[in-house]
Structure prediction request, 630 residues.
Amino acid sequence: MSTELLKAVAASNEWWALGPEIILACAALGLLVLELVTPKAQHRFIPHAAGMALAVVLAGVALNFGKIWDGEELFGGLIRLSMPGQVARVFFLLSSLLVCFLATVCLPRARVPRVEFYHLLLVVTAALMLLAQSNHFVMFFVALETVTIGFYILVSYYRERASSLEAGLKYLVLGALSSAILLFGIVLLYGAVGRVEAGGVVHTGFEFGTVLTFLRENPGNFLATAGALLVIGGVAFKIGAFPFQIWVPDVYQGAPTPVTAFLAVSSKAAGFAVLLLLVHGAFAPLAGVLVPVLSLLAAATIIFGNLSALTQRNTKRLMGLSGVAHAGYLLIGVVASFTVPWAAGAVWFYLFTYLLASMAVFGVMAYVAGPDDSGEELDHYARLARERPFLGAVLAVGVGSLAGIPPLAGFMGKLLLFVAAFHAQLYGLLAVAVVGVVISIFYYFGWIKAAWFEIWTPPAAGTDSPARPLPAGPKWVGVAALALLTFATVLLGFFQAPLSGWLLPR
Amino acid sequence: MSYAAYLPFLVQIVLAAGITGGVILASQLLGQRALGSKIKDAAYECGILSDGSTHTRFSVKFYVTAMLFILFDIEVVFLIPWTFVYRDFLAQNIAILSPMLFFLFVLVLGLFYEVKKGALEWEK
Prediction:
């Protein structure tokens, strides 16, 4: 490499543009230092420090939201700043802040070291933010692996509990498989594109822009198409789409509740951020192949998710499998975005409503769960509405929003997606989605019924009475957080402008 | 696409398979075996009977040490090229000292953390 080229690359290293990620990573290291230098009695302030760091970075990103140059490539083309990237940053920071809150509720009940959890949370958040802005397959893969390896540890965080370790091992084995598929796809693309010299600079198939140019010039290239499909397969694992969803129920059940929430919201959103980035960037010329493949995935995912969630009694498995169905609806949005440009905004709108509703539901789950949070059944909610009416109300609003009941945000999210699908003339997919929503109402309302309507059941022989005492209710921080989530869910159902004006083009 | 470019790979594969197969075949043909006497076929262990499992368990401390070794090994991988290009980069006015100092700071912080956490205490 010539020194002039190096100089040009060095000139594109704009560190301020990655400020949020760098600050988060430094804060993550800072937490470990804090643990070393402070006495043990003061360690309970460390979660607050993590939350503060996330809140400060979130405020910083929100204040500087529009102050980027859309499409600017930094670090020699590794990173590309974009408006969807900024939206993703806000999304991941908000989600991690709420996960941080859930962790302060759940972790004190288990005898585990706590500081490392927040350390990993911050590192994974920074990697998620980098992932959504990557413009180069090496950057993409490194960010994705940082996220995934962080999740391997987080899922098995209750290391003295067999269910958590089992979930971690399953996630590790299947995650490694998906990484292998993804890497194989990247290598095929790299091999197909080869080295392209333009203006004295050598481009390779690792750069998204080079892949795009190559696919435009050789639309029928078999190797490149196979590579692109394998990459999409690796991403489909992250979002839990149909043929790659098999890990979802077990991993969701075994993982600690905050980690389940993190997986359900951030990991899924990361998959969609990357999918949108790829299908509208590097793989755009392959629309003829991707539209049928993604449509098939979407239909199969909706049907599988809803049917398998029907019989679940464990709340985490229910959230996981219904989350699979939500991934299916979101995939319809991705398919629609090939012909209707604003559908990508609708996908983000849906993800935000999913974030609000899911975090509210996981918040309630955190307060209902005992020390062992993997065995939480619907029956445990039996007296929730009578003993903790506030939690019951939050649960009803959250679950109702997930089901898509009209005055709530989830309904507007689904409506936007379905209108986009209608404009894109995806009538078949629309029919599948509507059937899926109708099925989902059954199991979602079963949950609300368990909490609100009491049914006398004869005590089963051989078991103790189901009267399991509910743990202590939320303190003021918990009440404020859950109330805020519920309020936002209701508000967005009536008045979408704060979010849609920001995500959807006028 | 020209397949001739991949010829070295084919040669490599044929060589690898040929040498491995040849050695195994030669040892089959030329090696001496004592049919019907297991003891004579066993691996030579200085005249002592071999016993015990070959796959014994190691203390987890070995793995920790191995991981720490790899960490600092990688540090060297980054540091050596850095020393070679240091003057060139400075001449071109490209920042090179502060990024590397930050990298070293993070590594030293990690080492400090390990020592404090007792990862290097063998006797524990």
Remarks:
- Chain A is about 70% helix and 0% strand.
- The interface with chain B takes residues 3, 6-7, 10, 29, 32-33, 36 of chain A (CB under 8 Å).
